[in-house]
């Protein structure tokens, strides 16, 4: 079946959010007298939602008696500073605009907190991405297919019509669990070797590569 729909991951795929995430992590850690994390460490920690990000960042994770308080500090800070340094990757706004012009339906599905996903979507993709879903209560986060299926339902599309675009192993698993092919971008938080080890088959070096893959499907 010809593809009519493209579901995008957000962090590491459409937006470079790493610095703002790292700043929020280190704000919370520093407030609690914990050692700060490097940008590269945070890069490796992201992808499975913000709670797991902080479990990885906080010494001893959830076993640390200060974990919940530290996690709350992270969420409070990130809610106010999620767009200090964040920016779209080269060509992605134009990619989405081109997809829309060609008649494709587009959605964003992320493990980022839902309010932040919607806020960033409104800032960068307002008017061109009608559906943006993040982590929230009552729905399993990626790699479970739930948020993808919710997005498709809102778009009035089926998984057979859709392709998934992401930058990580979580995205590859999400696409597989959703019954969709995956395009793996190489400008995000994971490198080609890592993605290949996790089953990637299609690699996009540029936004133009994504468009080419979608049109060939």
Automatic annotation (TrEMBL):
Origin superkingdom: Bacteria
Single GO biological process annotation from the record: DNA repair
Any GO molecular function: phosphoglycolate phosphatase activity
InterPro entries, alphabetized: HAD-like_hydrolase_sf (IPR050155), HAD-like_sf (IPR036412), HAD-SF_hydro_IA (IPR006439), HAD-SF_hydro_IIIA (IPR006549), HAD_2 (IPR041492), HAD_sf (IPR023214), PGP-like_dom2 (IPR023198)
Gene3D superfamilies: HAD superfamily/HAD-like, Putative phosphatase, domain 2
GO cellular component, one term: cytosol
Pfam families reported for this sequence: HAD_2
NCBIfam families: HAD-SF-IA-v1 (TIGR01549), HAD-SF-IA-v3 (TIGR01509), HAD-SF-IIIA (TIGR01662)
The protein's name in its UniProt record: Putative phosphoglycolate phosphatase, bacterial
